[in-house]
Amino acid sequence: MDYIQESDFTMMEEGFTVRDLIDKIINEASQTEERDAFLVGDMEEVVKKHLHFLKTLPRVKPFYAVKCNNVKPLVKILAEMGSGFDCASKAEIELIKEIGVNPERIIYANTCKQISSIKFAANSGVQMMTFDNELELVKVSENHPKAKMVLRIANKDSNSSNDMNAKFGAPLNTCRHLLETAKNLNIEVIGVSFHVGIGCLDPQIYAQSIADAHLVFNMASEFQHKMTLLDIGGGFPGTVEAKISFEEIAAVVNSALDTYFPEGSAVDVIAEPGRYYVLSAFTLAVNIIAKKIVQQDAPESHGERNNPCKSAFYYLNDGIYGTFSRLLFLCGYPKLIFHKEPSPEQPLYMSSLWGPTCDPMDQIAEHLYLPELCIGDWLLYYNVGAYTIVTSSTFNGFHPPHIHFAMSPKAWEDVLLLKRRFEQA
Ligand code: PLP
């Protein structure tokens, strides 16, 4: 199955970098008046991440979390390399099925599903679905009796910046009852899942959750559920700057798997990584479309180069209703990079950055000391691939930035190699 062609990408020959591609696009735009914000999706980075995942977590099959970034060339590359998919909704299942992926490679990983979506999953051949409560089991028994259910358990203390337990997961002391209910409803429960939350600061939470999952596997045998699947969720960091590295988490996971689900235990282990794959693969280029200078009445100076007499307001052509939507919520103000590096002697002014809409909440950054910038200047933001494009809106009529997809010949070779391996397996 060919999901995607080499010709769907801008091929970056040896020595040509993503930054070169950005410069090229900016130079071309600078010849015209169209200076729309744009994104570059570096698919080589996604291929590298996939290879690293397979090497570092050799027993774990990735099921990419589509919710994180659902652009078609990206999911097609992942399909080509043999990844499975974690879909949260009917629309995500439709997307993955439409590109031609076998429904066995999909887990419908949303514990609370609309009845019509459960029926849709049944008619589409998607069998693996998660649950964490009794009423969901009743809905499934009536609308998808052949489903293979995965019990999502709560984590003890996820210690993450975005705690999933507030909304999802069955506490351990409810699991026996849920497994018994499933048995009485004639519903098969094939495994356990968890998600440690986004920005998890303690890798031991993975070990604790794997140990908890093991307890639930034992409980399941009391009710003759034959469990064969452990789903360790997402929460893996997307950049090397993260406080806890992917490798540290992987070491903890591998050792916990060896203890609780050793090789030969007939348990398939999957994960639902989202940001790990895409965060660092996308870069945003935004243009300054308007500027306002305000004289300061009561100047306050902080540092030699800082000029206290005026402050600057810069209006960009992307904002919190676009690429910056969840970014500010998840990571705080992202770090800006000047496309043209200003001279270090230039005075600095108190500056704020705003999105293009008429909403005063549409602010990207404040209290920044920046050299004076001009209308038409470009700013770059790296690491914008996760929970950005998917959460963009067209508020005020501003459309999300166009995405240019880049790939290198070497990475394309790796894709084809992984594809052959997957097809032979
Ligand atoms: N799986 C589930 C059920 C999720 O809710 C999420 C994120 O919300 C993910 C996977 C992906 O998480 P991450 O992007 O942290 O890997």
From TrEMBL:
Residues 44-278 form the Orn/DAP/Arg decarboxylase 2 N-terminal domain. Its cofactor is pyridoxal 5'-phosphate. Gene3D superfamilies: Alanine racemase (3.20.20.10), Lyase, Ornithine Decarboxylase, Chain A, domain 1 (2.40.37.10). GO terms for biological process: putrescine biosynthetic process from arginine, via ornithine. The modification N6-(pyridoxal phosphate)lysine is found at residue 67. GO terms for molecular function: ornithine decarboxylase activity. GO terms for cellular component: cytoplasm. Keywords: Polyamine biosynthesis, Pyridoxal phosphate. The active site is at 358 (proton donor). It comes from the Eukaryota. This is Orn/DAP/Arg decarboxylase 2 N-terminal domain-containing protein. It comes from Leptobrachium leishanense.
